[in-house]
Amino acid sequence: MNVMVSMRPDLCHLLVQGEALDPEEEATLRRHLETPMDRPMEVTFFESEWFDPVRVADLAAFSRRNPGNCVTVYHPHLFAYLHGLGISVRLVVPDPPPVRERRFAALALGGSTGSLEKLLQILRDLPSGALALFVVQHVPEETPNLLDRILTTESHYRVEMPHNMTPIRPGTLYVAPSGYNMRVGNGLVYVTRDARIHHARPSIDALFESVARAYGATAMAMLLCGHGRDGVEGLACVRELGGLSLAEDPGECGEASGLVAAALENGACNHVLPVSALASFAAAAALGDSPLTAGVMRVFLAAVAQCHGYDFTHYREESLLRRCGVAMTGERTASFFAFQELVLTTPAAFERFFFALSINVTHFFRSPGQFLCLRDEVFPCLASFPRIKIWVAGCATGEEAYSLAMLLDEAGLLARSSIYATDINPLVLKEARNGLYPAHGLAQARVNHALAGGARPFDDHCAIREHWFAIAPGLREKLFFYHHSLVSDGPFNEFQLILCRNLLIYFDEELQARVIGLFIRSLHHDGRLMLGPSESLWRIAGADRLMPVNEKMRLYRVREVEEVEHDG
Questions:
Q1: Is 453 left (phi over 0), alpha (psi -120 to 50) or beta?
Q2: C-alpha to C-alpha distances, 354 to 146, 271, 324, 347, 490, nearest whole angstrom
Q3: Which of 136, 253, 338, 460 is the most exposed place for a label (fewest CB within 10 A)?
Q4: Phi, psi dihedral angles at 90 (to 5 degrees)
Q5: Contact 439, 469 (CB under 8 A)
Q6: pTM of the model as a whole
Q7: CB count in 10 Å sphere of residue 439
Q8: pLDDT (tens digit, 9 = 90+) per residue, 395-418?
Q9: Would you put residue 421 in left (φ > 0), alpha (ψ -120 to 50) or beta?
């Protein structure tokens, strides 16, 4: 049973486990919420991330019934949503796992079959710093190791293939020569012809074990793809002596996954990660206590894209650096290394970072002059279509899409309209589908609606409650909210109108060009595109395919081929 009751003399405690309840459990929960009690009741939802409008209404009535009644949740976004709607709610934040603030002096990398390109990926974007770097790659003893020559052109570090007893200098990368084991100790690199280890010379184990003993907690080791077991014991030694041991995800290794699979079986790894994430760990370690740079941020965001499926690499650098700083403060991490380790390895930390980067600022009839322009200049064109399809890209919590629906309803066009509202954030899409908004925004919505040329009172389009207002069902049924990424997803329909306001300003020029190209491919030949008041097509590649209909209001249409050729 997922709904349980605990009775105390001063409190009735209702415990709800699981994200989804079956019909019988839903009925049980509702019965408990509606039953008057002789004592306050607390209802705790342990795993819920979201509630539909029916559940929200039930909890609001429950909250009003007794001033002592309270809802307890564990998800920050759900807490903020319920609190904004006037429901008495409490957030429980579990104690986060301890964040270890690490500082590194040495990074050791080892790999075998198929590891060359991965070594280069990790080392190519490594920022200049004080790390000492040590690399062992299995190569046949009779074959000269040319890795030092390759890395000289690919890395920002000094690169050496050392002789025996070469002094270790920070900011230098040492490559083990063919047929020799490389160890470190006492501030020196030792190169010897001693016995093979696991049939390998140079041996990854020999290097990793010596680095672990020489550097202790300031050592990091990364084991890449290959065959056999050379490197497994050494990686475990790094971990045992307080360093950080990392292994490549075997899923990236193809047939050469045996080496990292053996390390996983041995429990030798702190983390198992794709190479892009290993590159982020290395870059953050090299950065140390220096301020976060755009280059290190790009490496980190490439890892975020691979680990979590969201690509922020083409957002504007200044915005990313600012938002990342805010996110680091929220996580109470003193170093970027600790922050990126949290985000790349902890789903809850990634979710918090995702919300820090997501653009969710909106309200009803924002920039009302643009809505007035739509009503006067675009709706007459839309009226000529038997079916009207509209795309609101980057809809956030839905206010813009509902605003448009209200004006279409007043113009008699909503019945034959379908509004597709998209965003990359699944939780704000759920908020938009609910169509419930805090009452404190009602006064401004009424003003903006009037300025936008509203033909009827704003209140005609919603049901007003004590702490919120609910969008009318007739409007909600004409809106379709979908998860869609302007970064990675393609066209999904042909539209007579596309709105994408106040989003392009967060993208760099490359992504702006891709998004404008997506909109051009998605527009009907008589369609219209509206951007935000502060957005311009100036300097965006491919934007010459668009011509202004109302430049002041950022309203555009697609040029005919003849018009493009004539202008050319």
A1: left
A2: 42, 21, 10, 10, 22
A3: 460
A4: -125, 140
A5: yes
A6: 0.89
A7: 15
A8: 999 999 999 999 999 999 999 999
A9: beta
